[in-house]
Specification:
This protein is mostly helical. The chain folds into two domains: 393 residues, no CATH class; 143 residues, Rossmann fold (3-Layer(aba) Sandwich). The protein is built from 24 helices and eight strands. Helix 10 crosses helix 16. The radius of gyration is 31 Å and the shape is elongated. It starts with a helix and ends with a strand.
């Protein structure tokens, strides 16, 4: 049909409508054209098209600004010279392992290698390109790898939330990740524990599973798009297994199962609301139809493939299955252990969410009201991991991507001015500016990431570690509380008696070292050191924060008098220099009230 005949038919239809008394059909304002065939010019006072979220270039510039800010915030603590640049004790063991790999040494296989191999390979490439020594290249990678992963995580959240919602929510989700306290801690500069990479992989695995329902790839008459999605999830699980044993895949599987259950329930309820034939069917038949219809609307095919292969691996690897149930049992006994990450979530942990304590509940409410696929994912993800964190607080770190999207939903609605009246729009803009300003201002607290002396070695500890490295034998063994074992191993390059996992701790070992802290008799400390073939003993003021834990283990073994002063306190007060085969070698004798003391066994 030609354009001329189309116009003629429209004219006839308009005349007939006029004859019936119907008003002529009006073209929507967005579709009106001028005589030249172009959209009419915008009215004066409207915002330029460039500053619209429909403008890809504007959104791209905003996203680049968010990415730059996310990287900057995570590097803030590096400007504080009062502590070492590596944060988290566990980061030290992976840094040490990466150094061993670069030196061509074999690393212990007692637990998964985490980021050690990626760090070593990236550092080798950086050193080759920029002609840096292995030590300097590894330091550079250790400082900035986690912030770089944060940038990638922001991009992933933007892409995923844009697909699930729109660009506005996608951009605000990326912004939420940039300023969310838990997020800038686990991807802060110098944090090279498992979390920076694993939280990214877990998020990708969850989003890929949800999107697999939309993927369509035809092979003949078969649609195998969901197969590709399921296989990609399994690849991510395999990488997580290499990084973190079964725990990483378990986190992805937990999200998938929670989402699938929630999705099925929502679809089942929808079938009940829309079932117009329900009154003509027997109750049992109607229920069966609803169940089948609801199941078809879910991602049951990729779920079946992922779940069956996970079960198959568990059945083949009996040892892995036993370890899994053993660990789950220990986690469910929350709150009684000394390891902080295996204790239950506390009120102080919730306060770390800061302003997001207000945004997340609102986001949950909005998501529950809409209950689309994306809403079901973030709600089930956050709620299920929040419940798990009541038994193991570290789990809350892996709920942060969902928390970021929930915050993005709220912020996205807050800056959506399209449906507001003029007066309400002004108030909405003011509130949006205030909220974003608060979030930007609170993000400055990232500068204090390394201020806690148990998180990052302060200058006193670092100087003592350097002293051990420069002034003790390479095969020397150092005794201190297990919290600092990885510092001894990584920075000082000496073997600790106990640490967080490589050489282990617990039971009688902790009792013996607690006795060294609590005894008044230096000869008892010497006996314990000889038992473990330790050459040096380190005390510090940092133990004030965990003194109750040490005392609970050491007190039953000592017989304190009225003026009981433990050896730990005597050494730090400057009242111990040499006694019963034990002498102070650091700091110099003239230093009074030192923050850290190194004692050594006398020769002979």
């Amino acid at each position: 049909m030609t354009a001329k005949s189309k116009r003629a038919r429209k004219g006839v239809a308009a005349k007939k409508a006029a004859a019936r008394g119907a008003p002529p059909r009006q073209q929507p304002p967005s579709q009106k054209r001028t005589s030249a065939g172009k959209p009419p010019p915008k009215k004066a006072g409207t915002a330029p098209a460039f500053f619209s979220f429909d403008n890809k270039r504007f959104v791209l510039l905003c996203l680049l600004a968010v990415l730059g800010f996310a990287f900057f915030v995570r590097c803030l603590h590096l400007f504080d010279s009062s502590h070492y640049y590596i944060i988290s004790a566990d980061s030290h063991v992976f840094h040490w392992m990466a150094g061993e790999i670069m030196d061509g040494q074999a690393i212990p296989d007692r637990f998964p290698s985490g980021l050690a191999y990626p760090m070593a390979y990236i550092a080798s490439a950086v050193g080759f390109v920029f002609s840096l020594s292995d030590e300097h290249a590894l330091e550079l990678v250790t400082r900035y790898l986690a912030p770089f992963l944060a940038v990638i995580t922001c991009v992933v959240l933007y892409v995923a939330a844009s697909r699930l919602y729109d660009r506005r929510v996608g951009l605000m989700s990326a912004f939420a990740w940039a300023v969310l306290p838990h997020a800038y801690f686990i991807q802060g500069a110098g944090y090279v524990d498992r979390d920076p990479f694993n939280v990214l992989l877990v998020a990708i695995g969850a989003f890929v599973f949800v999107f697999s329902k939309r993927w369509h790839r035809q092979i003949g008459r078969l649609d195998v798009g969901w197969v590709l999605g399921a296989l990609l999830v399994l690849v991510i699980e395999f990488i997580l297994y290499l990084e973190w044993s079964w725990v990483g895949p378990g986190l992805v599987l937990a999200i998938i199962l929670a989402y699938s259950a929630g999705d099925f329930v929502v679809e089942f309820l929808k079938q009940g609301e829309s079932g117009s034939m329900a009154r003509y069917q027997p109750e049992s038949e109607h229920l069966s139809v609803r169940l089948k219809s609801a199941l078809k609307q879910t991602s049951w095919q990729p779920l079946a493939l992922v779940l069956s292969l996970n079960i198959l691996v568990s059945l083949v690897n009996f040892g892995l299955t036993a370890k899994t149930f053993s660990f789950i049992g220990s986690v469910l006994a929350a709150g009684s252990g000394e390891i902080a990450e295996l204790q239950g979530l506390g009120f102080s942990d919730l306060l770390l969410f800061q302003f997001f304590l207000l945004l997340i509940p609102v986001g949950l409410f909005l998501a529950l009201m809409r209950h689309q696929k994306g809403d079901i994912l973030v709600v089930t993800w956050f709620v299920s991991f929040f419940v798990l964190s009541l038994f193991s607080r570290r789990t809350i770190l892996y709920a942060t991507p969902a928390a970021a999207v929930l915050g993005g939903i709220v912020l996205g609605n807050l800056i959506d001015f399209r449906y507001s009246r003029e007066a309400g729009r002004i108030v909405q803009k003011i509130v949006a500016v205030i909220v974003v300003g608060i979030l930007l201002g609170l993000s400055s607290l990232a500068q204090s990431l390394g201020s806690e002396p148990r998180v990052a070695a302060n200058n006193a500890w670092y100087d003592a570690l350097v002293y051990l490295k420069d002034n003790t034998e390479e095969d020397a063994i150092v005794m201190t509380w297990w919290d600092y074992g990885y510092w001894i191993l990584d920075v000082a390059g000496r073997r600790p008696v106990v640490d967080g996992g490589l050489y282990g701790h617990g039971g009688y070992q902790d009792d013996d070292i607690a006795l060294v802290y609590c005894t008044e008799d230096a000869s008892e400390a010497v006996q314990v050191m000889q038992k473990y073939k330790a050459d040096y003993l380190v005390f510090s003021e940092v133990e004030h924060e965990i003194w109750s834990t040490i005392l609970s283990r050491g007190w039953p073994q000592v017989k304190p008098g009225e003026d009981w002063t433990p050896l730990w306190r005597r050494a730090l007060d400057g009242n111990f220099h040499s006694e019963d085969g034990l002498e102070r070698i650091y700091p110099a004798p003239e230093v009074q009230d030192p923050e850290i003391v190194i004692l050594a066994l006398k020769e002979g």
